[in-house]
Specification:
alpha/beta, five-stranded parallel beta sheet, globular
Length: 305
Protein backbone atom coordinates (compact mmCIF):
# COMPACT_ATOMS: atom_id res chain seq x y z
CA UNK A 1 0.00 0.00 0.00
CA UNK A 2 1.35 3.43 -0.92
CA UNK A 3 2.16 6.03 1.72
CA UNK A 4 -0.65 8.17 0.32
CA UNK A 5 -3.16 5.37 0.88
CA UNK A 6 -1.91 4.71 4.42
CA UNK A 7 -2.12 8.38 5.40
CA UNK A 8 -5.48 8.67 3.63
CA UNK A 9 -7.00 6.14 6.05
CA UNK A 10 -6.51 8.66 8.85
CA UNK A 11 -6.55 11.90 6.88
CA UNK A 12 -8.93 11.40 3.91
CA UNK A 13 -8.12 14.88 2.63
CA UNK A 14 -4.90 13.30 1.31
CA UNK A 15 -6.59 10.56 -0.74
CA UNK A 16 -9.62 11.04 -2.96
CA UNK A 17 -10.33 7.31 -3.06
CA UNK A 18 -10.61 7.17 0.71
CA UNK A 19 -12.94 10.18 0.70
CA UNK A 20 -15.17 8.41 -1.83
CA UNK A 21 -15.17 5.24 0.26
CA UNK A 22 -16.27 7.13 3.36
CA UNK A 23 -19.10 8.85 1.50
CA UNK A 24 -20.22 5.52 -0.01
CA UNK A 25 -20.44 4.00 3.47
CA UNK A 26 -22.51 6.95 4.69
CA UNK A 27 -24.92 6.62 1.75
CA UNK A 28 -25.33 2.90 2.37
CA UNK A 29 -26.16 3.58 6.04
CA UNK A 30 -28.76 6.20 5.09
CA UNK A 31 -32.41 5.19 4.56
CA UNK A 32 -33.10 5.26 0.82
CA UNK A 33 -36.07 6.97 -0.80
CA UNK A 34 -37.35 7.60 -4.34
CA UNK A 35 -38.95 10.98 -3.64
CA UNK A 36 -37.90 12.56 -6.95
CA UNK A 37 -35.30 12.04 -9.67
CA UNK A 38 -31.73 13.35 -9.86
CA UNK A 39 -29.50 13.19 -12.96
CA UNK A 40 -25.91 12.33 -12.00
CA UNK A 41 -23.17 13.07 -14.53
CA UNK A 42 -19.91 15.00 -14.81
CA UNK A 43 -21.36 18.47 -14.37
CA UNK A 44 -18.53 20.59 -15.76
CA UNK A 45 -19.36 23.81 -17.57
CA UNK A 46 -15.72 24.04 -18.68
CA UNK A 47 -16.03 20.83 -20.70
CA UNK A 48 -18.67 21.29 -23.37
CA UNK A 49 -19.25 17.58 -23.96
CA UNK A 50 -19.52 16.63 -20.30
CA UNK A 51 -21.96 19.44 -19.65
CA UNK A 52 -24.34 18.94 -22.57
CA UNK A 53 -24.55 15.13 -22.41
CA UNK A 54 -27.11 15.11 -19.59
CA UNK A 55 -30.87 14.42 -19.92
CA UNK A 56 -31.82 17.07 -17.36
CA UNK A 57 -31.04 19.76 -19.96
CA UNK A 58 -33.60 18.47 -22.46
CA UNK A 59 -36.74 17.45 -20.58
CA UNK A 60 -38.95 19.68 -18.44
CA UNK A 61 -39.55 16.76 -16.06
CA UNK A 62 -35.84 16.89 -15.12
CA UNK A 63 -35.18 20.62 -15.25
CA UNK A 64 -32.70 21.64 -12.54
CA UNK A 65 -32.38 18.11 -11.17
CA UNK A 66 -28.67 17.34 -11.48
CA UNK A 67 -25.70 16.32 -9.39
CA UNK A 68 -21.97 16.23 -10.21
CA UNK A 69 -20.69 12.67 -9.98
CA UNK A 70 -17.38 14.03 -8.66
CA UNK A 71 -19.13 15.65 -5.69
CA UNK A 72 -18.57 12.38 -3.87
CA UNK A 73 -14.90 13.22 -3.33
CA UNK A 74 -15.25 16.97 -2.78
CA UNK A 75 -13.29 18.48 0.11
CA UNK A 76 -16.18 20.68 1.24
CA UNK A 77 -18.47 19.07 3.81
CA UNK A 78 -21.51 20.96 2.56
CA UNK A 79 -20.95 19.50 -0.92
CA UNK A 80 -20.57 15.90 0.24
CA UNK A 81 -23.50 16.23 2.66
CA UNK A 82 -25.69 17.45 -0.18
CA UNK A 83 -24.40 14.62 -2.38
CA UNK A 84 -25.35 12.03 0.24
CA UNK A 85 -28.82 13.55 0.67
CA UNK A 86 -29.54 13.83 -3.07
CA UNK A 87 -28.44 10.26 -3.81
CA UNK A 88 -30.28 8.86 -0.81
CA UNK A 89 -33.58 10.68 -1.30
CA UNK A 90 -34.05 10.33 -5.06
CA UNK A 91 -34.26 7.90 -7.92
CA UNK A 92 -31.15 8.13 -10.12
CA UNK A 93 -30.48 8.86 -13.78
CA UNK A 94 -26.82 8.04 -14.42
CA UNK A 95 -25.28 9.63 -17.51
CA UNK A 96 -24.31 10.52 -20.02
CA UNK A 97 -20.61 10.78 -20.69
CA UNK A 98 -17.69 8.37 -20.50
CA UNK A 99 -18.43 7.00 -17.03
CA UNK A 100 -17.56 3.31 -17.39
CA UNK A 101 -14.17 1.56 -17.23
CA UNK A 102 -12.38 4.60 -15.86
CA UNK A 103 -11.08 4.89 -12.31
CA UNK A 104 -12.48 8.36 -11.56
CA UNK A 105 -16.06 7.10 -11.42
CA UNK A 106 -15.63 3.43 -10.48
CA UNK A 107 -16.57 3.76 -6.79
CA UNK A 108 -19.60 5.89 -7.61
CA UNK A 109 -20.89 3.35 -10.13
CA UNK A 110 -20.33 0.50 -7.69
CA UNK A 111 -22.39 2.44 -5.15
CA UNK A 112 -25.20 3.01 -7.64
CA UNK A 113 -25.12 -0.69 -8.54
CA UNK A 114 -25.52 -1.67 -4.89
CA UNK A 115 -28.31 0.85 -4.33
CA UNK A 116 -30.12 -0.50 -7.36
CA UNK A 117 -29.74 -4.04 -6.03
CA UNK A 118 -31.38 -2.84 -2.82
CA UNK A 119 -34.39 -1.51 -4.71
CA UNK A 120 -33.57 2.10 -5.60
CA UNK A 121 -34.89 3.08 -9.02
CA UNK A 122 -32.00 3.66 -11.42
CA UNK A 123 -31.78 4.50 -15.11
CA UNK A 124 -28.53 4.43 -17.07
CA UNK A 125 -29.01 6.96 -19.89
CA UNK A 126 -26.37 7.22 -22.59
CA UNK A 127 -23.00 6.83 -20.86
CA UNK A 128 -20.24 4.70 -22.36
CA UNK A 129 -16.90 3.02 -21.74
CA UNK A 130 -13.79 5.15 -21.40
CA UNK A 131 -10.93 2.64 -21.14
CA UNK A 132 -7.46 4.22 -21.26
CA UNK A 133 -5.55 0.97 -21.80
CA UNK A 134 -4.67 1.11 -25.51
CA UNK A 135 -4.52 -2.67 -25.73
CA UNK A 136 -8.28 -2.64 -25.20
CA UNK A 137 -9.10 0.01 -27.80
CA UNK A 138 -11.68 -1.43 -30.14
CA UNK A 139 -12.26 -4.60 -28.14
CA UNK A 140 -13.94 -3.65 -24.85
CA UNK A 141 -16.39 -6.45 -24.13
CA UNK A 142 -17.70 -5.62 -20.67
CA UNK A 143 -18.35 -2.72 -18.34
CA UNK A 144 -16.81 -2.42 -14.88
CA UNK A 145 -20.22 -2.74 -13.19
CA UNK A 146 -23.08 -5.19 -13.73
CA UNK A 147 -25.69 -3.24 -15.65
CA UNK A 148 -28.20 -6.07 -15.29
CA UNK A 149 -28.67 -4.88 -11.71
CA UNK A 150 -29.93 -1.45 -12.83
CA UNK A 151 -33.57 -0.73 -13.51
CA UNK A 152 -33.37 0.54 -17.10
CA UNK A 153 -30.23 0.72 -19.22
CA UNK A 154 -29.23 2.38 -22.48
CA UNK A 155 -25.59 3.05 -23.36
CA UNK A 156 -23.98 4.97 -26.19
CA UNK A 157 -21.75 2.02 -27.13
CA UNK A 158 -23.22 0.22 -30.13
CA UNK A 159 -21.38 -3.09 -29.81
CA UNK A 160 -22.14 -3.76 -26.16
CA UNK A 161 -24.87 -6.06 -24.89
CA UNK A 162 -27.20 -3.20 -23.93
CA UNK A 163 -29.85 -1.12 -25.62
CA UNK A 164 -28.16 1.50 -27.81
CA UNK A 165 -29.01 5.03 -26.66
CA UNK A 166 -26.65 7.61 -28.19
CA UNK A 167 -25.78 10.80 -26.33
CA UNK A 168 -28.89 12.83 -25.52
CA UNK A 169 -27.16 16.05 -26.66
CA UNK A 170 -28.60 15.32 -30.10
CA UNK A 171 -31.83 16.89 -28.79
CA UNK A 172 -30.21 20.30 -28.56
CA UNK A 173 -31.95 22.66 -31.02
CA UNK A 174 -28.60 24.02 -32.16
CA UNK A 175 -28.40 21.10 -34.58
CA UNK A 176 -31.40 22.46 -36.47
CA UNK A 177 -29.40 25.48 -37.64
CA UNK A 178 -28.09 25.75 -41.18
CA UNK A 179 -24.38 26.27 -41.80
CA UNK A 180 -22.33 27.28 -44.83
CA UNK A 181 -19.10 25.39 -45.39
CA UNK A 182 -16.16 27.78 -45.72
CA UNK A 183 -13.24 25.46 -44.92
CA UNK A 184 -12.30 21.99 -46.07
CA UNK A 185 -10.59 20.76 -42.88
CA UNK A 186 -11.13 21.77 -39.26
CA UNK A 187 -9.05 20.53 -36.33
CA UNK A 188 -10.95 20.36 -33.06
CA UNK A 189 -8.71 19.59 -30.09
CA UNK A 190 -9.69 18.11 -26.75
CA UNK A 191 -9.01 19.95 -23.52
CA UNK A 192 -5.77 18.14 -22.68
CA UNK A 193 -4.30 18.55 -26.16
CA UNK A 194 -4.96 22.26 -26.43
CA UNK A 195 -3.53 22.78 -22.92
CA UNK A 196 -0.60 20.37 -22.84
CA UNK A 197 0.59 19.96 -26.43
CA UNK A 198 1.33 23.47 -27.67
CA UNK A 199 4.06 22.22 -29.98
CA UNK A 200 1.55 20.07 -31.87
CA UNK A 201 -0.97 22.88 -32.10
CA UNK A 202 1.70 25.26 -33.36
CA UNK A 203 2.95 22.69 -35.88
CA UNK A 204 -0.53 22.38 -37.39
CA UNK A 205 -1.51 26.02 -37.23
CA UNK A 206 -1.87 26.20 -41.02
CA UNK A 207 -5.20 24.43 -40.49
CA UNK A 208 -8.19 26.16 -38.91
CA UNK A 209 -8.62 24.92 -35.34
CA UNK A 210 -10.54 25.30 -32.12
CA UNK A 211 -11.08 23.18 -29.00
CA UNK A 212 -13.79 21.84 -26.75
CA UNK A 213 -12.82 24.41 -24.12
CA UNK A 214 -14.77 27.17 -25.89
CA UNK A 215 -18.56 26.82 -25.80
CA UNK A 216 -21.27 24.89 -27.60
CA UNK A 217 -22.12 27.67 -30.05
CA UNK A 218 -18.50 28.15 -31.13
CA UNK A 219 -17.89 24.41 -31.44
CA UNK A 220 -21.01 23.78 -33.53
CA UNK A 221 -20.35 26.82 -35.70
CA UNK A 222 -16.79 25.61 -36.34
CA UNK A 223 -18.01 22.10 -37.18
CA UNK A 224 -20.77 23.49 -39.36
CA UNK A 225 -18.41 25.49 -41.57
CA UNK A 226 -16.02 22.52 -42.03
CA UNK A 227 -16.32 19.72 -44.55
CA UNK A 228 -13.98 17.39 -42.60
CA UNK A 229 -13.42 17.34 -38.84
CA UNK A 230 -10.26 15.88 -37.29
CA UNK A 231 -10.58 15.59 -33.51
CA UNK A 232 -9.62 13.87 -30.29
CA UNK A 233 -12.87 14.94 -28.61
CA UNK A 234 -15.69 12.37 -28.46
CA UNK A 235 -18.46 14.94 -28.63
CA UNK A 236 -16.79 16.84 -31.46
CA UNK A 237 -16.82 13.55 -33.37
CA UNK A 238 -20.43 12.85 -32.43
CA UNK A 239 -21.70 16.32 -33.24
CA UNK A 240 -19.82 16.38 -36.54
CA UNK A 241 -21.49 13.11 -37.54
CA UNK A 242 -24.88 14.50 -36.53
CA UNK A 243 -24.24 17.45 -38.87
CA UNK A 244 -23.30 15.16 -41.76
CA UNK A 245 -19.56 15.91 -41.70
CA UNK A 246 -16.73 13.58 -42.59
CA UNK A 247 -14.83 12.63 -39.46
CA UNK A 248 -11.36 11.43 -38.49
CA UNK A 249 -10.53 10.76 -34.85
CA UNK A 250 -7.34 10.58 -32.82
CA UNK A 251 -8.35 8.17 -30.05
CA UNK A 252 -7.39 8.89 -26.46
CA UNK A 253 -9.61 6.19 -24.91
CA UNK A 254 -11.80 3.32 -26.08
CA UNK A 255 -14.87 5.56 -26.46
CA UNK A 256 -14.02 6.54 -30.05
CA UNK A 257 -14.34 2.99 -31.34
CA UNK A 258 -17.89 2.17 -30.37
CA UNK A 259 -20.23 4.65 -32.02
CA UNK A 260 -22.58 3.07 -34.56
CA UNK A 261 -21.31 5.25 -37.41
CA UNK A 262 -17.57 4.85 -37.68
CA UNK A 263 -14.92 7.52 -38.02
CA UNK A 264 -11.49 7.00 -39.56
CA UNK A 265 -8.88 6.31 -36.88
CA UNK A 266 -5.79 8.45 -37.44
CA UNK A 267 -3.13 10.58 -35.72
CA UNK A 268 -2.54 14.30 -35.76
CA UNK A 269 0.85 13.61 -37.33
CA UNK A 270 -0.55 11.59 -40.22
CA UNK A 271 -4.19 12.59 -40.74
CA UNK A 272 -3.57 14.21 -44.12
CA UNK A 273 -2.78 10.77 -45.55
CA UNK A 274 -6.13 9.46 -44.26
CA UNK A 275 -8.43 12.25 -45.44
CA UNK A 276 -9.55 10.30 -48.51
CA UNK A 277 -10.93 7.53 -46.30
CA UNK A 278 -13.38 9.73 -44.42
CA UNK A 279 -17.08 9.48 -45.10
CA UNK A 280 -20.23 11.25 -43.99
CA UNK A 281 -23.60 9.80 -42.98
CA UNK A 282 -27.17 10.99 -43.44
CA UNK A 283 -30.13 10.67 -41.12
CA UNK A 284 -28.08 10.16 -37.96
CA UNK A 285 -29.47 13.21 -36.15
CA UNK A 286 -33.04 12.07 -36.72
CA UNK A 287 -32.23 8.51 -35.66
CA UNK A 288 -30.49 9.57 -32.45
CA UNK A 289 -33.30 11.92 -31.53
CA UNK A 290 -35.97 9.29 -32.08
CA UNK A 291 -34.10 6.76 -29.93
CA UNK A 292 -33.70 9.23 -27.07
CA UNK A 293 -37.32 10.32 -27.13
CA UNK A 294 -38.50 6.71 -27.02
CA UNK A 295 -36.06 5.95 -24.20
CA UNK A 296 -37.36 9.00 -22.31
CA UNK A 297 -40.89 7.61 -22.51
CA UNK A 298 -39.72 4.37 -20.94
CA UNK A 299 -37.68 6.15 -18.28
CA UNK A 300 -40.46 8.52 -17.26
CA UNK A 301 -42.95 5.65 -17.14
CA UNK A 302 -40.52 3.71 -14.94
CA UNK A 303 -40.19 6.72 -12.62
CA UNK A 304 -43.93 7.46 -12.75
CA UNK A 305 -43.20 11.04 -13.85
Amino acid sequence: MSLKKIIGKFLPIVDGDERKERIARKVLKTPQQDNDVINIHRYDKNNVGDYYCAPHLYFKELNGKYLDILGMRNLKKEVTSNWINEVSNNSLIIGGGGLFNIKYFKRQLELFEELSSRGKKTVVWGPGHNEKDRSKFGNVSRYNVDLKKFGLVGTRDFSMDTEWVPCVSCLNPIFDKSFTETQEIGLLYGKKTIKNNKSLVNKLDDFPFTSNTTNLEEMISFIGKSNIIVTDSYHAMYWAILLGKKTLVVPTTSKFYDFKYKSVITTFEDFTNDLHKAQSYTGVLEECREINLKFAEKAFDYFNL
